[in-house]
What we know:
The chain has 13 helices and twelve strands. It has helices spanning 20-27, 43-49, 65-70, 89-94, 107-123, 125-133, 157-167, 182-188, 195-201, 221-226, 244-252, 290-309, 319-326; strands at 6-9, 31-34, 55-58, 76-79, 98-100, 149-153, 172-176, 191-192, 204-207, 232-235, 258-261, 279-281. Helix 5 (107-123) crosses helix 7 (157-167).
Amino acid sequence: MTASQRVLITTFPFGEVDLAPLTILQESRAEFVLNPFKRKLKEAELAELIEGFDILIAGTEPITENVLNRASDLKFISRVGIGLDSVDLLTAEKRGIAVSYTPDAPSAAASELTIGLMLSLLRHIPQADQNVKNSSWRRLMGRQISDCVVGVIGMGRIGKRVVRLLHAFGPKILANDLFPDKEFGDQFGIRWTDKDAIYREADVITIHVPLTRLTKNLVAEKEIQTMKSNSVLLNTSRGGIINEKYLAEALRSNTIAAAALDVFEEEPYVGELADLDNCLLTAHMGSMSESCRKRMEREAAEEAARFIRGDPLHNPVPQVEYDVQRQI
């Protein structure tokens, strides 16, 4: 692979917490361009920008067939993060475009945000904050994690990390995964069960699965109607897994007590959930910790540098991810 590759960096922020990723690209003699919009790009914007670039360092923007058809020079996509639902892997494969990602880097930050949202819902922290600021001194009664049954749907890197953090609080933990890790379950006292049992029995339900054909609208009307009236629901994985329309209806009617979402079907989010006091919303910030951003950006830049040098990639997207998209 020759040097002087042109690199488009669409993830934002990039190189703000730590200049090391930009230094890595400079040392690789790459010519790079940062996201000019300083936000998540829309499909049309990315399609307009991508022409003439050899390498894309990407965030969660839609890298569709239409985008890739405009990317006649593109040879490599280095995804900053773990989710691949925004990348048309099959078109990339057909076009001979290699793809890598940073699957381990976001786990700590995303799992800690999950616990923070969980505590906020159970102890009514956002409402208490607003009450005091509005001169209303009300002590709100909440629940302890230790008194709850917590259901974890999806026990990959982040789901397991959430369980490790939960273990210190001492709740009963139910878990569901396509491939249950019995050794891990035994270590942390997990009861493996089906999703329906989690919906029925859990006081807290937290979702940690990728967005695929099988998980689109995974939690919709039927599932929400099955939940306890005092249950709380969290999603820090991908938008589209929880049906936002049915969730809003359930929260308005107190079918469930509360919800927290960090991810949405359309981002930035604008919708009825923003009007509900029992719904806590954050702006897809699961990976937005300093150490997480440093690691993700550095790993993505290092993969780009390896590709430029012609060295083997450390984290190429595994074949199973392509197989998942073939089933959609």
